[in-house]
Amino acid sequence: MTYEIEQSQVLAMAEKRSGDGPAWLRDLRTKGLKIHREHGIPTPKNEEWKYTPLRDVARVDYTVAEGGPAVFDQDFGSLSGSPIRIVMVNGRFDRNLSEVPAQTGLIACSLRDAWIEHEELVQAHLGQVARIEEHTFAALNTALFDDGLFICFKDGAAVEHVIEVIHVSSGEEMVVVPRTLIVAGENASGKIVERYVTDGNSTCLTLPVTEVFTARYANIEHVRVQDEATTNFHIGLWEIKQVENSEYRSYNVAFGAKIGRLDQNIWLGGEHVVTRLDGVVVARGEQLLDNHTRLDHALPNCNSYEIYKQIIDDKATVVFNGKIFVHQDAQKTDAEQTNQALLLSPTATINSKPQLEIFADDVKCTHGATVGQLEEEPMFYLRSRGVTKDKAEAILVYAFAAEVLELISDDTVRDNLEKRLFDKLAIL
Q1: Predicted TM-score (pTM) of this structure
Q2: For the chain, which has fewer Cβ within 10 Å, the N-terminal or C-terminal residue?
Q3: Whole-number Cα distances in Å, 306 to 295, 338, 354, 369
Q4: Domain limits at 129?
C-alpha cells in the first residue's frame, strides 16, 4: 500500500534529469525513477513503516531545490575545528563556502566533477552499495540528484584531519537530495563527521543517500549528526560495504526533524571485519525519530558491536528496528546489539524491535532491549546535595547518552557533541 499523492513537479524534474550525465549514470537515474514510481510513499500497512506514518509528507506537492548563491541566516559553526570543511547546500557542493586544502592521498570534491575527472572510480561504486530496490526514497534521490560529494582515501593514505561536511537544507516545500560517495582504498585511514542542518525554519523534505566502501585493511570512523529544524522531514539511507580486514566505526546522532528516519545497513563482506554501529537519539515535543539498522555477516570471523540509546520526552515517539543476519558461511561470528530507551514523560513512546537471524552454528550473538525511567536512588543522591530537580534529571540523562559519545575518538568532535547534547537536555 502507498499514499495517493501529488508529485507532478518532482517527477517532472526527475524525467528532465534522467538525460543528464554519461550513459551509465543515465541508466542509474532511470532505474531510480522506475523503482520510485512502482513503490511510491509507503503507508503504515507496510511492515517496515508500521510506526512511521508519512501522511504529512504525502500531503505536500514539493518542488526540487535548485542551485544558486547561498546566504544563510545563521552560522553553523564547526564540530571538529578541522581545516577541511565542506559545505553542501541543497545537495550541491558550494565552492565558495568550502575549504579543502591539498591533502596527500585525499580526493574531496563535487560528485559532478568526480564523475568527469574520476569516471572509472565513481562508476565502479556509485549506486553499487545502496540497495535502492528496497528503499523508495533512496530511489527518488537516485532519480533526482545532479551533484553531491565524493570523498576518496587513496590506497595507503592516512589523512590526519577530520573531514567535516555540513549539509544545509534551505527553502519552503523543497525536496533536497544530498548524495555522498565515500571510497576508502587499501590500508587507508580517516575520519569524517557529517552534519545535517537547516537554514531557519524551512519546510524541506531531505532525502540523503550516503554510500561507503572500505577496501582491505581500511580504517574509517564516521559520525553522522542529524540536527535539522523540527519543521523538516528527513528520510535517509546510509549504506556501507566492507571487505576483508577492514574496520568501520559509525556513530549516528539524531536530534532534529519533525519526522526523521534513517536506514543504516552494513554488509560485512570479508573475513576479519570489525564494525561499530552506535547511536544516540533525543526526541522531544511531537517529534518522530525512526532508526532501522541492519548488519549482514556474510563471511567468517567478523565482529560487530551495536549500542543505541534513546531519550524520549513530551509526546515524542522513537522507533528502533535493529536486524542482525548471520549468513550460512559466517562461522565464528561475534555480534552484540543493545538498545536502551529512557522515557521522561508518561506520554512518550518507544517502539523497539531487535531482530536476530542466525543461519550458522558456530557463532556468538547477543541482543537485548530495555525501556525505563530515571532511577530514584541517583536522583535522591543529587537532590540531597542541593542539585535542583531539573538539573539532576539533565545530569542523569546526559550520563546515560554520553556513554555512546565517549566512544568517538576525536576529542574536539566528542566534546562539541557532548556540549550540544547537554544544551538540548538542559531545557527538559
Answers
A1: 0.95
A2: N
A3: 9, 6, 11, 12
A4: 8-268
For the packed helices 389-405 and 376-383, what is the interaxial angle rounded to 10 degrees? 120
pLDDT value of position 267: 98
Judge whether 114 and 147 are in contact, CB under 8 Å.
Answer: no
| DSSP 3-state of 32 | helix
Where is 189: in which H helix or E strand? strand 189-198
Q: Write the single-letter amino acid at 334.
A: D
Report the relative pairing of strands 149-153 and 106-110 from DSSP bridges: antiparallel
Q: Which of 241, 268, 295 is the last residue of a domain?
A: 268
The sign of the dihedral angle between the CA atoms of 88, 94, 98, 100 is: positive
Per-residue pLDDT of 117-129, as tens digits, reads 999 999 999 999 9
Q: Which three cell numbers stand for residue 402?
A: 554520553
| Angstrom distance (rounded) from CA 284 to CA 310 | 11
Which residues have a Cβ under 8 Å from the Cβ of 171 and sit 6 or more positions away? 65, 90, 202, 203, 204
**How many domains does the chain divide into?**
2
Residue indicated by cell numbers 571487505: 243
Question: Residue 5 above 60 pLDDT?
Answer: no
- Do the Cβ atoms of 163 and 193 come closer than 8 Å? yes
Residue 287: closest CA among 258, 318, 254: 258
Give the residue among 207, 248, 203 at the shortest CA–CA distance from 226: 207
- 313 contacts 348 by C-beta, under 8 angstroms: yes
**Where is the domain boundary, 268, 283, 311?**
268
Cell numbers representing residue 233 in the block: 522531514
Whether residue 184 contacts residue 157, with contact meaning beta carbons closer than 8 Å, is answered with no
Domain membership of residue 350 (yes or no) is no
Residue in the structure block whose three cell numbers are 556509485? 126
What's the grid cell of residue 284? 522531544
Q: Which amino acid does the sequence have at 235?
A: I
Among residues 103, 113, 109, 138, the alpha carbon closest in space to that of 33 is found at: 138
Q: Which residues have a Cβ under 8 Å from the Cβ of 34 and sit 6 or more positions away? A: none
The Cα 49–Cα 363 span in angstroms is 31
Locate 89 and state its grid cell: 547546500
